[in-house]
């Protein structure tokens, strides 16, 4: 499958006249609870030659494609990427911590990580995960019958908040790393591990009554996490992002 993905990346470069600087796996395979039937979710960053940023009508800043097995590729233009970096977009930081990398320019990755560290806002990322956890909690789990799979969509952002609250740095992609680091209650840990093992085994996570252990844990933590306060440092100058975009577009052609 990796060969198919590598070929799709090369075809994307040729079709769109771009250079892919980084490509990784996102979603369940990167989180570590994929099953044999899980799709591949490839995410990548690309750059155009300088001339591509000087047109009267701007180019579309995303590229999307589907592979024959319904796996998908989705990429962001470098200018869009840097705009999102100024907002501390969590997806960017997750992608660069993915355990599965399909393509990368080592010099670009090193330079990007250095810049990204300066734009990293714990407060923004924490609030993103908290809103995601709260939204999924209210949208999926406040019913008499709930999908067991949906617990994972609340647990991961909630555990990410706990990770950030403990000042452990950027949130890791792997779910197991989060769980082992921030869940101390043995009953909660067992309930989470059982859920993840069932998901990995490809079991049908059928709907049923709410899990009392996970419900109590999530309800208490979400309420408490809303009281956490953060301060933001002053952001760096935008000029360094302009120079970075110009440098990498100048190297492409």
What keyword list fits this structure?
253 residues, alpha+beta, 2 domains, transferase activity, Nucleotidyltransferase-like protein, RlaP, Beta Polymerase, domain 2, 5-stranded mixed sheet, transferase, two-stranded antiparallel ribbon, globular
Strand numbers in spatial order across the main sheet? 3-4-2-1-5
First-residue to last-residue Cα separation: 29 Å
Indicate the CATH class of the largest domain.
Alpha Beta
Residues in helices, as a percent range? 40-55%
Number of helices: 11
Give the helix/strand class: alpha+beta
Order of helices and strands: HEHEEEHHEHHEHHHEHH
Biggest β-sheet: count, sense, barrel?
5 strands, mixed
Judging from the principal axes of the Cα atoms, what is the shape? globular
Radius of gyration: 20 Å
Fill in the CATH topology of the largest domain: Beta Polymerase, domain 2
Strand content: 5-15%
**CATH architecture classification of the largest domain:** 2-Layer Sandwich
Number of strands: 7
Give the low-confidence spans. Answer: none
Describe it for me?
InterPro entries: RlaP. This is Nucleotidyltransferase-like protein. It comes from Fimbriimonas ginsengisoli Gsoil 348. Pfam families: RlaP (PF10127). 52% of the residues lie in helices and 13% in strands. The protein is of the alpha+beta class and 253 residues long. It is globular, with a radius of gyration of 20 Å. It folds into 2 domains: 136 residues, Beta Polymerase, domain 2 (2-Layer Sandwich); 104 residues.
Secondary structure: elements and pairs:
Blueprint: H1 2-16, E1 19-26, H2 28-31, E2 41-47, E3 62-66, E4 72-77, H3 78-85, H4 90-95, E5 101-104, H5 106-119, H6 122-140, E6 146-147, H7 150-165, H8 175-182, H9 186-200, E7 207-208, H10 212-225, H11 239-250
Parallel strand pairs: 2-4
Antiparallel strand pairs: 1-2, 1-5, 3-4, 6-7
Helix pairs in contact: 6-7, 7-8, 7-10
